[in-house]
Amino acid sequence: MPGFEGVYELAEASRYLHATAPQKPPHYSTFRRWVRSGLTVPEAPPIPAKGLFITFEDLVSLRMVVALRVAGFSLQHIRRVHRWLKDTTGYPRPFALRDLWISETDIFIEMENLLSVTRGGQYAMEFIKEWLSRLRRPLAGSLDLAFRRVDGKEVACSWMPHSHVSLNPLIHFGAPCIEGTRIPTTAVWAMFLGGDKPEAIARDYGLPLIKVQSSLEWEKKIANLVS
To answer: pTM of the entire structure?
Structure first.
């Protein structure tokens, strides 16, 4: 995807990851080291942290690293997996691809066959796929991500980090918006802070009240992280 389809300051991306992580995620400085070292994205130039921006696919890739760390995989192991996937798929951000699976001890990718990434691309037997489906899919394959086909690969194209809130890199440069609209959640939050009731905001925008309430819940999470 072109770099300007979804642009995030790293500190902003860190807040989104903190707001959605199942467990306490790494500190912002850790995300910065991951990005600078090329773990999830092409190696970042030596510029000040405030000038460091990432794309939507980078954000999804960082999310995958968080998921793998929570699952118990070491950073060294994740680096090896990332390099193998990058070389094998030919895609610069392989953690943004759809067909990744994890078990408690292994990582798999579904290409023409199910391959064990941890074992250097060995074929996995078909019954393992059914077994994996009863365990857990990694974040890149979860229901809150949507995908589109790019050069024959299914690549993440939108993320729903909270109920009725969507990040689509083609809408407002990937800023969180109310699902199915181009209304940034920050706009609804500003109205709420200005004294408008959720019911009034919903009437003004012609939206179901639940969508407004969900966007306010999301923005409250982000605000709490900033404060």
So the answer is: 0.82
